[in-house]
Write a structure and sequence with these properties.
The two termini are 40 Å apart. By secondary structure, the chain is mainly alpha-helical. It has helices at residues 14-21, 24-48, 54-72, 85-97, 99-102, 110-146, 166-191, 210-216, 226-231, 235-261, 289-312, 327-350, 355-360, 368-377, 382-391, 401-409, and strands at 151-156, 159-165, 193-194, 221-222, 269-270, 352-353. The relative contact order is 0.12. Helix 6 packs antiparallel against helix 7 (166-191). The chain folds into 3 domains: 14-106, Fumarase/aspartase (N-terminal domain) (Fumarase C, Chain B, domain 1, Orthogonal Bundle); 111-202 and 224-356, Fumarase/aspartase (Central domain) (Fumarase C, Chain A, domain 2, Up-down Bundle), CATH 1.20.200; 364-421, no CATH class. Strands 1-2 form a two-stranded antiparallel sheet. The chain has a two-stranded parallel sheet with strand order 3-4. Its EC number is 4.3.2.1. It comes from Candidatus Falkowbacteria bacterium RIFOXYA2_FULL_47_9. One of its GO terms (biological process) is L-arginine biosynthetic process via ornithine. InterPro entries: Argininosuccinate_lyase, Fumarase/histidase_N, Fumarate_lyase_CS, Fumarate_lyase_fam, Fumarate_lyase_N, L-Aspartase-like.
Length: 428
């Protein structure tokens, strides 16, 4: 079948075709349902512009639904010669309906086709990331409430510093994940703009109702300037991946902490055997591979974000084929983020703190600051109190460590949020 741009005498060297198409025809199997959705909306706009009759529109929608059904059953294949899902769809409609099938591309360029399909795909994936992010928020909020005053050493410089609690530690993740979701909302808002009708970047000279397609596709707003719509490809993906990077950075810290805190040397948490793997040579080993993969995937997404930024920077206005290469890192990055959040929520919901070990960790020297402030309350200057405690650290005794911990760590204390004040994010 013909390419969308191909003339009767146009030929393309097979090596050039293979190189320029790359794996786009494979990646587009993910985008195909969204291009079908966009094509239906575009066909409706063509009816309003009097390019299509209602009967023609109905035939095209029927053909588009057939393609979707074939795709869902694994029977619709995009060939390398098609280049992408857009050509495959048009070729199918043309083969089925003849000249009517050729009308579907009126007032359209593959530039805005790719843009709108990618936006619709990304919108769905951002909602999935949102759902998994909220699940993890709930896991940590449950943990914070359940273990609010179960002791846990607090660290600075990777050394024991002050008394903390599992509740305080878990609530820190709740708050960070809430902030991560705020960034996700911004990425969602940026993505939720309709570029359809921008064509090749300079609009069309037929009365295409862009507000209609915006409404039909459920976009929040219209991307007004046609040239900017094309220019935004790559830069929008770059911002989305920068937000995804921040989310997985949160997971990377969690993964690193859990790798350490579940070792026999720390033993603060018990990692269930179902989440560990074994060694091919050491029968006794149980390994936290799940967290190591999460930690490593942070670097993968950082690289994907950098890849998109580097591809997109310094391009002149208008479409540049360079941006074709932003599709794969976007798809990969969103997939990795969703799966990483999903697996972290699962594992953290099953992990249990080792109470005996954590209670024993509450040794007197942890309360040096607490003792210093006790002396300050009695009227001693802070610096004198500091030196006194430092010089008598070996003699420091805390009669009721748990009571002292509550005074130090209480999440309901002055200047601190109560756990009841934490509200998980709203689903996108």
């Amino acid at each position: 079948m013909a390419k969308l741009w191909q003339g009767k005498t146009t030929t393309l060297h097979p090596l050039v075709e293979k190189y320029t198409v790359g794996n786009d025809y494979i990646l587009d199997m993910r985008l195909l349902p969204f291009d079908i959705e966009a094509s239906k909306a575009h066909a409706a706009a063509l009816v309003k512009a009097k390019v299509l009759k209602k009967t023609e529109y109905q035939k095209l929608v029927k053909g588009l639904n057939e393609i979707l059904a074939l795709h869902q059953s694994g029977k619709f294949v995009i060939q390398q010669s098609d280049e992408d899902c857009h050509t495959a769809i048009e070729n199918y409609l043309t083969k089925k309906y003849g000249d009517l099938g050729k009308k579907i591309h009126t007032c359209r360029s593959r530039n805005d086709q790719v843009l709108v399909a990618t936006r619709l795909y990304t919108r769905k994936k951002l909602k999935q990331v949102s759902s998994e992010l909220i699940k993890l928020q709930r896991v940590f909020l449950t943990m914070a409430k359940k273990y609010e005053f179960l002791p846990m050493p607090g660290y600075t410089h990777t050394r024991r510093a002050m008394p903390s609690s599992i509740g305080h530690w878990a609530a820190a993740y709740v708050e960070e994940l809430i902030n991560d979701h705020m960034l996700l909302e911004t990425a969602y808002k940026l993505n939720d703009q309709n570029p359809m009708g921008a064509a090749a970047g300079f609009g069309v000279n037929l009365p295409l109702d862009r507000k209609l397609t915006t409404k039909l596709l459920g976009f929040q707003r219209l991307q007004v300037n046609s040239l900017y719509a094309i220019n935004s490809r790559g830069t929008t993906e770059s911002f989305i991946l920068s937000v995804v990077t921040k989310i997985v950075m949160t997971l990377g810290r969690l993964a690193n902490e859990m790798i350490w805190f579940t070792t026999p040397e720390f033993n603060y948490f018990n990692l269930p055997a179902e989440f560990t793997t074994g060694s091919s040579i050491m029968p006794q080993k149980r390994n936290p591979d799940i967290f190591e993969i999460v930690r490593s995937n942070v670097n993968v997404i950082v690289a994907l974000q950098t890849q998109v930024k580097d591809i997109s920077k310094n391009l002149i206005s208008g479409y540049n084929r360079d941006t074709q290469l932003t599709k794969e890192p976007l798809i990969k990055g969103l997939g990795i983020a969703r799966r990483s959040l999903e697996v972290c929520a699962l594992v953290m919901s099953k992990i249990k703190p080792n109470r005996a070990v954590l209670m024993k960790s509450l040794s007197p020297e942890f309360f040096a600051v607490h003792e210093t402030n006790r002396l300050v309350k009695k009227g001693m200057a802070f610096r004198d109190a500091y030196r006194h405690v430092k010089e008598h650290l070996a003699d420091l005794k805390i009669e009721d460590p748990v009571k002292a911990l509550k005074e130090v760590v209480s999440l309901g204390g002055p200047g601190n949020l109560r756990l009841a004040d934490y509200k998980v994010s709203k689903q996108l």
